[in-house]
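Teaching note: in complex prediction, the entire set of molecules is handled at once rather than each chain in isolation. The prompt given to students was simply: 'Predict the structure of this complex.' The entities are:
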Amino acid sequence: MVEPGERVGADVLTDRLGYLLKHVQARLAEESARALEPFGVSGRELAVLAVLGESRPISQLEGAGRLGVDRTTMVGLVDRLERRGLVERRRSEQDRRKNVVALTPDGEDLLRRAEEARRRMERAFLEPLGDAEAERFVRLLRLLLNDGGSR
Amino acid sequence: MVEPGERVGADVLTDRLGYLLKHVQARLAEESARALEPFGVSGRELAVLAVLGESRPISQLEGAGRLGVDRTTMVGLVDRLERRGLVERRRSEQDRRKNVVALTPDGEDLLRRAEEARRRMERAFLEPLGDAEAERFVRLLRLLLNDGGSR
DNA sequence: TGTCTATCGTCAGTCTTGCTGACGATCAGC
DNA sequence: GCTGATCGTCAGCAAGACTGACGATAGACA
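The expected output is the structure of the full assembly:
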């Protein structure tokens, strides 16, 4: 991705939701990559860890559903985390078709530290909006995802 | 892309800016594809047309810069639009290394009609926010792109 | 009990999107 | 008129995600 063009007032591009979302997201992805680089995980991998860490162990498919990724994509995600010793797969006792995926102690530890870095990065990213507007912004995004999705 | 997971209150995922932006953008991309399908152009192709239509003819590279795409990507974009008879390349008189790209009458016409459809789609997309919040949302996005980018 | 269908994890293949590196043509400075 | 930069093009590569198929397992039902 290349830097967006020079700024122009009310603009044929910055009037487009698609353009705005895409480029804002691209900038966040960059910041995120920079912030997580010391931990050796991508933003998505961290999200996987976060989902796995939030409650009881869940199956691969369940995790994929929570994250909104395809189950075939989840295979590779878990592969990589397992290779790094951050998660463990084991066959479910209740349903032996399922892989239950759980954090290892290393995984727990990395999750905690990387989440802290992510939160710092997000605060910095939203800083130009000011606190009140930043909070509102996140709320509106959430609203679009929930209300829009269930229409 | 798969539908995001079930809604849960304050959430390890919907607290993530990355997750929110990515999925909101994905939903918009779907809506956009649906809205533009009758016109046979993608959202990005329409953005190209819009940039080309907004002022004097510009070079391919200049257009790429405005759009924030790589110049090699621009080749393919213009290729496709030219094949469909929506734009015309010609060698610049001033600098014969440059391709000046201009809308054809067909291109102008399609631009007008498709832009109308896009605006309708965006209004519907933002509808859950209400008018005032929708406007604010766009303003905040613009702010993030501009202020963040120049830091 | 045995059969039939659905589910889960996996893999191979494919498509899309974007980038890198190289090339020829052209320009601009000297 | 050289020399180094710029522009458009192309081929090749890499990441991300999806499709379709497969084997293993589970659950329903006769």
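Point out the following to students. DSSP finds six helices and three strands in chain B. The longest strand of chain B covers residues 87-91.
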